[in-house]
Amino acid sequence: MTAIDAIEGVLHVGPYVVVDLETTGLDPYRDAIIQVALRRSDGSVWSSWVNPGRRVPDAILRLTGIRPEDLATAPDFREILPTVREWLQSGRVVGHNIAFDLAFLARHGLFAAESLDTLEWSRLAFPLRAHHGLPDWFPEEGDRLHDARVDTEMTERLMRAIRDKMSHFSRELKRDMAYFLGNEWQWWDIPFDDQGHTQKSALYRPEPDLFQAESLAPVEITADPVEWLSPHGALADAVDGFQARPGQQRMARAVDDALSQGDILMVEAGTGTGKSLAYLSPAILTALRQGERVVVATHTVALQDQLWGKDLPQASRDLPIRTALVKGRGRYLCLFKAAEVVQDTPALGESRERRWALATLLSYIEATEIGDAEEFPLKNEAGRAIWTEVVADSQACAGPRCPFAGPCFMRRARHQAESSHLVVVNHALLAAHAANGNVLPPFSHLIVDEAHHLGEVLERSLGFELDAEAFRRRYRDVMHTRTGIWARLALPPEFLGVRHSIQERYQQLLDGLETLGRALAEATPPGEYDRRAVRVTPARWELLQEQGVESLWQAVNDRFRELVDETELLWQEVQSRQNVTENASWLRYRQWQQDMVELAVGMAAWGQVVDERVSWWEMRTGRDGETIATWRWAPVDIAPILRENLWDGLDSAVLTSATLTVHGRFDYLQTTLGIPAERLKTLNVGSPFDWERQARLLIPTDSPDPADNSYWERLADLVVEAARRREGRTLVLLTSYRAVEAVAWRIRERLEAYHIRTLAQGVDGPARRLVGDFRHDPRAVLLGTMTYWEGVDIPGSDLEVVIMGRLPFRAPGDPLEEAKQERIAQRGQSPFYRRSLPEAVLRFQQGFGRLIRTTQDHGVVVVFDPRIQPGRTRYANVFLASLKQVPRVAGSQADLLKTIEAFWEEHHAHSHK
């Protein structure tokens, strides 16, 4: 029995009626209702099928379990409308994501005087839950859900759980809920006491920081990491379904040797190797034996969560190791700021969205132990706005003087890291440490997973960006008459003139940036893309001088300097008169002022043509058709910076990924990341998959050149025919949004004839949501840009065909890339073979890796680019060699479609033996 099952009985609330609808789709203006269910608070239930008068998509029939014959004899909605209206007048209308149901009912003239959304209240009552859908709450119901009758029953059960959870809020939290939510909270009729509550929210218990770091003394331990990973080792009992893997053991031995011998090891280990445990096991033992800290850095949140929530607890079970998960300062909630926001926000006059965001924030603070942005449950606009007001930052921090220093989430994470043997971070935090130092506690050993991303993350960290739209948005936030920085500052009367002067300077700076942006827009060469980047070369700078643009840039620098000088003077003057370091409003002012300093320094360096960095501007078209400018610069070569700031200060390091080599060599990433050759060791573990049994690489010999007029039609033909044969289950990897649109509109209607959906990134929704839709119903074709070439994990039979539209070379026109290639050419080397080709091959391998994720997966990859045909280009074999273990079939498009059928016939024959 689950906790929610135990909460039964009558709900002590006002009268209500739970409603749930099933529909032919999501759009109330185009789709129709096919089922209605209603459940009153007195226990009575009413439901009916509804004839929509149109064909219902197969995906909806499968989802709901409704049969066409059920609908054929069902009444039209107009026939049952009086009954539905009568039931809706029974009390407060309740539903899970009630806005969806109300929108459909409104199309029929049915409205609710009062409504309650259990999805909304679920997020408030259970803020640490990752998912709040009914299938997530009631997984045991399985296929019964999406029957409206069952959904109303489950919604009522969830209401009981919500009320029970909120009755256990602290007295202080209940008080604030009543204040911000008013009658909506009162309807639940929750006793105003501390029923069952044992701990107050951190927001209601300020206390000093009394932390003292624990030393990392060496521990005597004789375990061997390779033995741990053996069939009878320590992990065999700790990991469910553990299987000893030779590749994993080879990698663990190499990592252990590198950590003990002071090497920098690069390990390529394919998906399925189990590389996380292969490096965690020796890392844990090294940290304990030597009493030294090991930092593990990942690129994606998904891998970080896997390490922290699964792999690390398994690998460290029964060992005296202390571990910590640390994120960037901007990922943590500041209790000081939260207290001020709550105190300064009146319930009257605030929008419902903001009051709900504040109430959810308060519930989250009482529930959380880590105060992490990733946990915060409210992802809508109001939730994001509240988070920006309470997020921790480096300047607006009173440090140990803060009244919340004790429970401070950021300080606790940092303290935990200072006392930990093993610290998990992301690439961005590691990059910040490499750029500035002192971001992380001192560490001797480093392990970088997803290491092929490290270079690009470091380039961003070491570079500069000023976006005109973001600057304008920040200006509005700062100058807001009620919630802005100036509205909350308690300024002595004699400084009001200074405030006016600063505000005037700020406005002049904004005007100057917009004037400069318009001038650069006129100086931008025309292009076919919405986003255009222009590199500032010596010749371009001379042209900008002639056009008067350089003087506009200089005027912006002057405005920056004047603003920075005046804001610093005000800070110093006020600081000499009052204790501003313990005032959240003044600390927020200081953060803004320091941000202006950083932008001023960066903008002054922009445009200066020097060998070490490259400057450029970008133009893009905004939602309203306006042109938006962005100013950027970045180092051309991060290798010497990394060597000096990172590798030379470490006793050892390990870099690993499924894709580190090009043509079997590690040279490309070794050079890019500045890894000293004299310390380098390498290992290619290979893949545990049976490629002969599991996969085929298909190369059409009649695919047209991508520049040919017939290219898109032929590619669309291939997608439709492949998807038809596999009933969807197809991922199409493309290299631009225009390519996605070009293929999507050519295949959509043709696939609908086979009841296969088209899910196009940027057309049908954002990338992450479409992947979820595809997993839920794989009778679809998923099309995406570079986002989908890696990081998409769809194991099993949901994905069986991957089609690459083109080889993933970087599009021309990237100023930083041009500068890098020029640097290579200056050394007398080929930019294509030293830079463009290796980068494309690594991305190509990542794209192929979307297909086979486990030893049970099977499928084909089709590369619809004639440049990969052997003999067609000098570099085709470099791509093919990267997948040399995968059986390759070349032939006409028609023959390859037959190959797909034959491959699956063979697979099914083997699986039934």
TrEMBL record:
Pfam families: DEAD, Helicase_C_2, RNase_T. It comes from the Bacteria. Its EC number is 5.6.2.3. Gene3D superfamilies: P-loop containing nucleotide triphosphate hydrolases (3.40.50.300), Ribonuclease H-like superfamily/Ribonuclease H (3.30.420.10). The keyword Electron transport does not apply. The keyword ATP-binding applies. Its cofactor is [4Fe-4S] cluster. One of its GO terms (biological process) is nucleobase-containing compound metabolic process. SUPFAM superfamilies: P-loop containing nucleoside triphosphate hydrolases, Ribonuclease H-like. GO terms for molecular function: 5'-3' DNA helicase activity; ATP binding; exonuclease activity; hydrolase activity, acting on acid anhydrides, in phosphorus-containing anhydrides; nucleic acid binding. Keywords: ATP-binding, Hydrolase, Nucleotide-binding. CDD domains: DEDDh. It catalyses: ATP + H2O = ADP + phosphate + H(+). Residues 234-512 form the Helicase ATP-binding domain. Belongs to the helicase family. DinG subfamily. This is DNA 5'-3' helicase. The lineage of its organism: Bacteria, Bacillati, Bacillota, Clostridia, Eubacteriales.
